[in-house]
Amino acid sequence: QLSQRLALVADYLPKGAHFADIGSDHAYLPCFVCLNDPEARAVAGEVNQGPYDSAKNEVEKHKLEDRIDVRLGDGLGVVDPGEIKQVVIAGMGGPLIRDILEGGKDKLSEVNRIVVQPNIDARSLRRWFFQHDYTLVDETIVEESGHIYEILVAEKGDPSSCYHQQIIEKEMWLGPFLLEKKTEAFIQKCKEEWKKKQYIVKQMKRATSPDEEKLKQHQKEMEWLEEVLQ
Ligand code: SAM
Predict the structure, then answer these.
(1) Which InterPro entries match (predicted)?
(2) Which of 28, 50, 107, 121 could form a disulfide with 94 if both were Cys (CB 3.0 to 4.6 A apart)?
(3) Do 157 and 193 share a domain, yes or no?
(4) Are residues 118 and 195 in the same domain?
């Protein structure tokens, strides 16, 4: 049984996908996709031996060796330029996913879709997409076992087309599609963020010489959250 989080990631792959799943761990995602779509093919990349072995076992268990190639290596280093059409990187921190994309930029020439699921700091990925001419085409947010996960889907295109000019900073932080959809999980996340910010601001105000710039930024972000929650 695939987690709801990974099932949602899988939903963003087209029929007949030929994708890389970087940091595949047990290769649950590529196995699920290939079992449900006879045309799909994948490269499952893993940097660590343990998860690499687990991925190999899972792929063999389903007899998918001819369609899922499990490779040991760092980030997008496991694929050749032009080899794959989609990239999935899920279940890691935003900055690590960003570093993997940055380090493997030369592998993305034929890639028509990138699906990322950062556990924290989705903003670092929205920024990276913006700076590298990718536009967001969708986002979703899901609550599972007490955690809230964001999924971002990007394609090559005018990077500013998914943002409103006046509130770009706010959207880059909270997500233009997530702000629009305003689902229960998103509201929940905003409430949690607001509480965190309130605590930070309180602590900062107590300090003898608080960083005024940072304080202002936190206060601005609290206002954005209040706009969502009102
Ligand atoms: N993608 C799966 C998911 O979403 O459930 C597994 C997530 S797991 C928490 C993160 C995996 O990424 C680990 O198995 C880890 O070994 C792998 N990983 C971390 N850094 C990596 C890198 N630079 N290249 C490839 N794999 C990496």
Answers:
(1) SAM-dependent_MTases_sf (IPR029063), TrmK (IPR006901)
(2) 121
(3) no
(4) no
